[in-house]
Every structure is written in structure tokens, then in C-alpha cells.
Amino acid sequence: MIRALAMIVLRDWGCHKLRLTLTTAGIALGVAAFFAIQTTNDALVGSLNGTIEKLAGKATLQAAAGNAGFSFDAVKTVRSTPGVKIAEPVTETLAATTLGGTRLLILGLDTASDLQLYNTAADRSDLVIKNPLVFASRKDSVAITSKLAERFGLKDGDKISVETSSGPAVLTVRGIFAASGIGDVYDGNVAVMDIYSAWETFGRGNRIDRIDISTDNGVDVDAVQKELAARLGPGIDVVRPDLRGKSLENSVTTMHAGFTILSIVALMIGVFIIFNSFTISVNQRWKEIAILRSIGVERRGIKLMFLAEAVILGVIGSCLGIAIGLLISMASMGLVTRITATVYGIASSTPELRFEPAYAAAALAVGIASSLIAAWVPARAAASLDPAAALRNIETRRSEPRMNRLRLAVGALLVAAGLLGVRATPPGIDSYIQATYSFMIQFGMIMLLPIIISAGGRVLRPVMDRLFGAEGVIAVETMARSPRRTAATVGAIMIGLTFAISNASLIQSLKLAIDQSLDKALAADIVITSSDQLSSRSNHFSDASAAAIASLDGIEAVDRIRVTTTKMNDREVALLAHDMGEFFRISPDLLDSGDPVRARELTSRGEGVVISNNLAFRSNLKLGDALTIRSPKGDVVLPIVGMLDYYRSEHGTIFLERSLYRRYWDDADVDYIFIDLKPGTDREAFKSQAAAALAGTRQAFIYTHEEYKQFAGGVIDRFFLLMYMQTIIAIIVAAIGLVNTMLISVAERKREIGIFRAIGGLRRQVVKMVLLEAVAISLVGFAAGAVTSLLNTYFLINTAAKVVAGFRLPFHFSFWLLGLAVPAVIAMAMISAWFPARGAARLEVADAIGYE
Amino acid sequence: MTEIIVSLDNVCKIFDGAGSVRALDGVSLDVPRSQRVSVMGPSGSGKSTLLNIICGLDVPTGGRVMINGSDLAAMSDDDRTRLRREQIGMIFQTFNLMPTLSGVENVALPLRLCGTGGREAEDRAAALLERVGLSSRGTHRPDEMSGGERQRVAIARALIFDPPLLLADEPTGNLDSATGDEILRLLDDIHDEFGTSMILVTHNENAAAICERRIELLDGRIVSDTLRSQG
Fold first, then answer.
1. A596-634 b/e with 16+ CB inside 10 Å = b?
2. CA pair distance A686, A552, nearest whole angstrom
3. What is the pLDDT of residues A579-598, one digit of tens each?
4. Distance of CA A637 to CAs A437, A640, A664, Å?
5. Do the Cβ atoms of A759 and B78 come within 8 Å?
6. At what angle do helices A763-795 and A750-758 cross, to 10 degrees?
7. Contact, A502 vs A438, CB < 8 A?
8. A850 contacts in B (CB within 8 Å)?
9. Closest CA to A272 of A722, A721, A744
10. CB pair distance less than 8 Å for B110 and A759
């Protein structure tokens, strides 16, 4: 019997190639997204860790202190620690070059040492500088990788121009090393300078970014690590290189979470498409199933037939999906690397893609399981088909029951409970529990879909009747009387719109909040930055450059800011060192809480700090509490004298006096300059003046207040790139759902369409009827989506933003996008239904109405 | 001279497939206005194919079909559809009502498809439903009606344009004998009232008995064509 059923399935595939393609595509799409996301993520994490490990060479420990770096003096402390064999100081500078826009990672190493850590047979890095004495004695010496040399045709003696904080500097190639080991990171865009030259060239004082440490053979590395931590103090972390990679990995958790959600969405799409395709299959084959049942095939046999088909399609679709996923991974590597670099400020080599059999096996299992889950309900429906009823006339097929009171009650209860949770849950509750509120609201709305469809049908019927006549009425009635078939698509449109509109609303709310925050905390007329990124490890203004700007004509007040980070509760909190007196002068309405006069007085004397509200929220801090900030020279403990809404970091922001920062961090660099102009000074003229003052000395980005707000909006858009991708995927699902539903609708109504034609309905009237049904479905989906997106926006702004980042955001609902969605949804419906409508119009009437 | 409403001249229909089937083989037939013709014959004799070709649902492989003076071969699909909608009423064994529409809406549908306003079309439909004895059930949907009621709705729908020709395919085939007899009486009354020509495909002798003319088909050929004396 199994062979006979298999033959029937194979024949059916031959007859319904479109459905077969849709089903396989559904599985392949879900699996491809799953596999691509896992592979890309793995490659990214591998690349982050690989970069750290390769840069660390043979080091067993590393000492580092966030973005600001720390004094070279720490090297002596490390070298004098028992158990330490080698301690190599390192500076890292990511500098723009004239080599076709390439950014070069310039490592400052002590080239007078034997560079043992980076030059062993084991890692074959071949970092050999032929003449270290000449190399070290000429301050412009640089060694580059053979890969870079090949790419740009560089050889010994050639010049490379690089951006530094005091203007462009010309370096001379005096060594080429193999592109392996440390030369293998950043696609070989790596150069080595002597550390003393690097300090001078890049104006780093005597600060270093890390110390690579090798311990004596046989010593307890953990014990050495503890001893070093104790000797170096709280401002410098001593970690194993692999754990440093982990720490960077933690920084991209938001992106990782975004990827995971994307992966789940993709799988849901797959399940949805397969479910719809199998439903089509059952509907197309109901007569065939009835015949099989009537000739003695048991219910179990019918069910097995569909489930076996699901497994086979699962295998085929999964294999296809894995191949597509690999291609997607290859294509998306560049994008992912860019996001990590521009948004998170973490540069890594272009991830190396590897085919991971374990992920492939997992993807195959996920694909088959998804197929089985999706096919389960249609298979059960096929098995429970009453053969006698299935062979009866269409008039005897009663319309589906529209209302199930229990279902409606559960749906209403879920929505109410979700909203209550959003409204009433205190902030300390676990974030996963709070995430379920959104799920409850959306799932509740899905359960309420039958009543929404029914109500939608009642509202639309007279409108469609008036506008489109009988075809409109039939379209609405067909939609309303098949809630099972319709609900899947209405649900898909609802979820798609919810994603699109609530994400857009969240982004708009965040932009609005940042806008308001920038008006309050950055009331400067002019903002000058050293980098086109929110934070940069390597591009800074020197104290002298900042002083040159500060001495320009027309300035009323100037605030120089160093932007860096500090660790607090294992999280990287933004640390902003301002000229606090000037900061308060430029932005007098800075604080949301705290006495501004006292806060200005205390902070400008370095006797107090201001923190962001989200840091207070996340760390349970309040005004007057003592805040401990770790610095390379020990803990800085200061009272909190003011708080404000500030959105730079989801982990929080600390504002402190720059002179205090310079003292504790030995860092005079400046990243931002806020300038208030004297009344009557022309902003554009000042911008030109500032640009001229900096011309030829270094790269600077000069904005007016409004321009800077635009720049910040652009950064937010980049940050939410994944959300936009999710939205696009959700819209694709909704469109595929509509195509599927219309195919099912046409398949189920073949006879009805035949009757319509038999009694005088023209082909174009059939097309019109099918298109109008799609429009009706999309309008009801739109209505359901509008309500759900409003509720989900409430969740995102009220709960998610607080849980994820401690942000307090104003409620902003994107009504304009909702308005735009109406024509978009109708257009999508028409396009999606066009093919099924054409198919319906081409039906052979005599066949359709079941003549012999 | 008697007006011919249906004229078939040497009509052939061959279905190509694994083995080609000659469903109609040189059928010639003239049906004058107001005449009722029963078409009888065993399964596979070509009765339904004949009906499909007369109403323009199918096209003949050879020969010529004229309906009320129009040559079907010269008409586009849309023109044939309009002809079917406005000049031919169709009644099916399986009623073939639109399940999503009420009785009145089903009857009004052909009118609405050619642009008549909803109110006007439904008023006319309600009047026809009253004529077929179903005024109280007009707002019900087909799944809420008995077989006889459904067939009455189908007859009312067939009459909405007051067509000169009614085609009925086993109109009593899905009904019990008492209900079947009621439907035949209704068709008889309609003929008397409207003077509509009818072609009834049937196995039912009672149905054939209301017709003046009886045609028997076998293997796609007319093997008998007899006129019943009016009595």
C-alpha cells in the first residue's frame, strides 16, 4: 500500500508543480535563513575571537583598560611580577590611509625586542624586521603585510600617508612580513611600527592599549593573573585573550539577539508556507482522498501519506536551504562586519566562512521537523475527511463555524493579560517574562481573528456591494465564510504590519527622545567630531587641535569632550569627560533631576558626576549615591549630583570633569567639541572658519546642531538595520501568505467559479472577484494589524525599551506609516492575487462544475 | 414560418486523449421556439456534451451551432458568456447555486453581473422567487435549504432574463419523486406562462413526458427523434 500511496503522491507532484515549488521554497527559505544566520553568527564570533587571538600571538594573558588605554608605566609592574616571562606593550591605531580608502590597523610594538610573542614557528607569522635598528631609528618606519604590499604594489622605501590626530603623516615601508598570524587579521590591512614612533606619530603620549603577556612554563596562569590584577589595580583588566574575545562577543549581544529573532521569524515563515501549501494540497485532493478512503485506505494511511510527503519535501527543501543559506552567508558577511564596525565600533577581519556539518545537520533536522509540524494539521484534516461528504455537492459543504466562544474568550483574556502585564509589571521582573507580554498580545489577537474577520465582512459587504457590485459581495462573503482559510493570511498580514509599524514607531520614539535629549544636553550651535562614527578608538583630536578650535573668533563657550568607556558590573558604560562648567553653560537645561547650579559647581571642580537615567535605572542608583568609576590609577568615587535622559549607550552614561579624567586616565585626547557662538555669529561662516583651521592637520566633521541631529538619526537607522530586515521579511511572508491563500481559495472554489462562469460571469469578472477577495482579506488584515501594532508599540516603548536599555521613551505611534500601509497592502494584495485570479479565469467551466 | 431557437448542423465533438472519444457524431437538430425537447440515452451517449455545446460551454470539433440566430463559432468567449447569461437559462442536477449567497442574491446574480443595481435586481429576484413558490426562503443560504427549494431557486435564477431557451440537465435527478414531480409541474407552468423553449436531458420518463419531442442518443448519434402528439 505504501508504494501505491507513494506513486499517488509522486503523480500529484507532477500535476501541481506550482504547489510543489511553493512548499519546497517554503522549507528552503526557512532553513536557508536559519542556516545562514547560524553560520554568519558563528563566523562573526569566530572572527572576533580569531582577531583577538591572532593579535595576541602567543600571549597567555592580556592587560587592557577599555578604549582610553593606560600608562606605559604598567609594563614595568607587569614585567616585575613573578611568573611573567615576556610582557610586550602594544598600541593599536586604526588609521585612514591614502591607499584607496583602506583603513590600516597599525600596531605599535617594541621592535627592539625579539618579538618572540609574534614570531614563532607555531603561528608562522614571520614578523621579522630585517634591520630593527634602522627600523627603530627612523620614526616613519612601518612594516606591512605581504598581502597589503601585493594589493597596492608597495615595496621597501614606498610611502603611505595616514591620518593622525595632528594631521596627515607619511610613513615609509621598511619591512614586509607574511600575511599569517597577526598579519592575517583585517584582510592583511595590518602594519607594525615601533611603539615609540607610534606614540609620537599618533600623539598617544606614553599610553598603550594593552600588554601581551607570556607566563613562565609550568606556572599557574590563574595565579599570575590574580597577582597582576592586584598589582595593576581596578582600572586595568587582566584576562586570557580568549575571554577578551568573549567580552567583545557580549558587546554584540543586541545584534546576536536580532539575528536570533530573524532566524525564528524565518522558520515561522517556513512553517506557515508549508502549512498553507499542504492545506492547498488537501483541498486540491479532497476528492482523491475520498476515493482512497472509499476503496479501503485507512485514515492512518492517508495521514501517513501526507506526513511522508512532508518528510521527503523536508529533506529536499532543507538540502536546498542549506545551499542557499551558505550563499546568503557569503553575501552577508560584508554587511555584518560593517554593522559591527560602524555601530559597535568593533573592527574584525572579514569573517572566514566555514561549512559547519553540525549546523547543516541541525538545519536538516529543523527543516524536517518544521515540515512535519506544518503538515500535521492538514494531514489530520485529510485523514478525518468524511468520504461521503467529500463527494457530495458544494451546497452541502456547510460554511466553517465562525465562532468558538472558548477560543474568543481565551484570545480576549490573553490580550487583556498582556496589556495588564505591560502596564503593571515592576521593572525588576525578568526580561524573558516581560517579553511574553508581546507574545500574549499577538497570540490573543490571532485567536480573535475569526471575530475580526466576521466583523470586517459585515463592514465591507455594503461598501464592496456599492463599489463593485455582485463580484464585491461574493468576494467579501467568500472571505467571511471561510475564516480558517482566511485567518492564516489575515494573521500573516497582521503580524507583518505589526512588525513594520511597531518597529517604525519604536524607532521614531527613540529618534524623538534622542532629538529632545540632544536639544537639552547638546544645545551647542556647532558640534565638531573627530570621527564619522559614534565612537572611535583611533581618531581623536589632540589637545592642541582642540585648543586651536577653541581660540577661533566668535565663540561664546566651548566644551571639549573625550568619549570612552569604563567597566561597571561587567558592562561597558559610556564615559564622557566634559569641561563640565562649559557643558552646563552651553546646555543649561541639561538635568532632569538634581540642582543644576550645585551640579555645575561640584562637577566642574571634579567633586561630583552626572549620570544618565538608564544607568540609574539599571544599577538602581539615585541622587546622592556614591558612584565608583574604575580608572587605570585606581577607583574614582564621586557623588551623583544630577541625572538626565541620554541615549548613547544601552548600558548607561557617566559625565565627569575632563581635567579629572586627564588626571586619572592620562589622556588629553578630545573626540567632540561643542561650541556656542556669540550672538550674531553666522554658523555657516564659523563652520568654514573651523574647517580652514583644521585643514591639512586632521580629519574633522563639523555640524550645526540640526545637522548633528540628522547624523544621529542616521546612526539609529544603521543600528536598527536588522529590524528593517525583519520588517522586509515579515512583508514577504504576508505576500507569500496571500498568494497561498488565493491559490487555496481558487482551488477550493473551482466548482463555484465554474458555476459563476456557467450562469454568465465573464472571465474578467472572475479576475475581479478573486482580486477583490484578496483586497477584502488585506483590508481586514490591515485593521487587525493596526490594532495589534498599536498594542505592540505600547509594549515596545513601555516595556522592551526599558528592559533592554533602561530607556524612558515618549509614546509615538507611526500613523503616517499606517496611512501609507493602506495603499501598500491593497497593492500587495492585487499583485499577490493576480496569478491565482488569472488561473481562476482560465478554468474550464464544464470541468469545474463537475460534468462527467 | 416557425422560428428556430436552436439549430445544430452536423455537430461533432471528439475528445482527444489516450484514445480519442467521439462524444457527438454528426448531430443535426432544429428546436423551434416554445418547443420542449427531452434528450434521453444511456450514460456516455453524449447528452451532457450536447448540452454543453448548445450553451457554449464547449465548442464543437465540427459542424455549426446557431442559437437564436447567432452562430456560436463566430462569437468570442465573452460573447458566448453573455449569450448564456441573457438568452439561455440553465438548470443543473446538482443545483449549482453560489454557496456564499442567499436565495435572492443567487437569483439576482446574473442581472447584477450585467450591471443592474442591487435593489432593482433583488426586487426582480424576489418576484421570481414568489413565482416559484419560495418567497419566504429568499434570505436563506443554499446550505439552509432542502433539495427542492434549491432547485426552485436555480429555476428562478434561470428565468431572471426571461430567456427564450431553458437547458436542464437531469433537473429531478437529485430529488425524491414527490419533489421531482413538483419541479416538473413548475417547469410545465413556466413553459405555459413564458413560452420558453426547453431542452431537458433526463433519464426520468416523467420528465420526458412533459416534452413534446423526444430525442434518443446513442454513441453520439441521434437514433430516435419523435414528436409526441398533443393531447
1. beebbbbbbebebbbbbbbbbbbbebebeeebebbbbbe
2. 9
3. 999 999 999 888 999 999 99
4. 39, 10, 12
5. no
6. 140
7. no
8. 94
9. A744
10. yes
Q: From A193, A207, A216, select the one nearest A115 (Cα to Cα).
A: A193
CB contact under 8 A, A395 and B86: no
Note whether A846 contacts B57, CB cutoff 8 Å: yes
| A824 CA: distance to closest CA in chain B (Å) | 28
Q: What are phi and psi of A159, to 5 degrees?
A: -105, 145
**CA dist A200 → A112, A169, A541 (Å):** 17, 11, 14
Residue B203 distance to chain A (closest CA, Å): 15
- Closest CA of chain B from A757, distance in Å: 7
Kind plus residue range of the DSSP H or E element containing A333 = helix A299-342
Is this structure's pTM higher than 0.80? Answer: no
3-class SS of residue A378: helix
Taking contacts as CB-CB distances below 8 angstroms, the residues of chain B near A473 are 101, 105
- For the stretch A262-311, pLDDT in tens is 666 666 666 766 777 777 677 667 777 777 777 777 888 888 888 888 88
Strand duo A167-177 + A159-164: pairing:
antiparallel
Residue B223: pLDDT above 50? yes
Q: How far is CA A434 from CA A615, A650, A737, A802, in A?
A: 20, 18, 29, 11
Write the pLDDT tens digit of every residue in A197-210.
888 888 777 788 88
Give chain A's contact residues with B (Cβ, < 8 Å).
393-399, 465, 469-471, 473-474, 477-478, 481, 751-752, 755-765, 845-846, 849-852
Distance, in Å, from the CA atom of A298 to the CA atom of A284, rounded to the nearest integer, reads 20
Rounded CA-CA distance A827/A833 in Å is: 10
CA separation (Å) from A504 to A253, A595, B74? 21, 36, 58
Cβ-defined contact of A760 to B101 (cutoff 8 Å): no
Do the chains contact at B99 and A469, CB–CB below 8 Å? no
Strands A103-109, A571-578: pairing is unpaired
Query: Where does residue A82 rank: exposed (0-12), middle (13-18), buried (19+ CB within 10 A)?
Result: exposed
Closest residue, chain A, to B112 (C-alpha): A470
Residue (of A506, A567, A600, A472) closest to A809 by Cα position: A506
Query: CB–CB of A167/A696 below 8 Å?
Result: yes
Q: In terms of C-beta density within 10 A (0-12 exposed, 13-18 middle, 19 or more buried), how is residue A721 classed?
A: middle
A342 pLDDT tier (thresholds 50, 70, 90): low
Residue type, B103: G
Out of A465, A477, A760, closest to residue B100 by CB: A477
With contacts defined as CB-CB under 8 Å, which chain A residues touch B13? Answer: none
CA atoms within 13 A on the CB side of A147: 17
> Does the CA dihedral A491-A496-A497-A498 come out positive or negative?
positive
Best mutation site among A755, A769, A770, A773 for testing chain B: the one with the most B CBs within 10 Å? A755
pLDDT tens across A436-472, in order? 888 899 889 988 988 899 999 999 999 999 999 889 9
In this prediction, the answer to ipTM > 0.95 reads no
Nearest to B100 among A478, A751, A764 (CB): A478
Interface test with B, best of A391, A394, A395 (most B CBs within 10 A): A395
Neighbours of A291 (CB within 10 A): 14
Contact across the interface for A396 and B143, Cβ inside 8 Å: yes
Q: What is the 3-state secondary structure (H, E, C) of A432-469?
A: HHHHHHHHHHHHHHHHCHHHHHHHHHHHHHHHHHHHHC
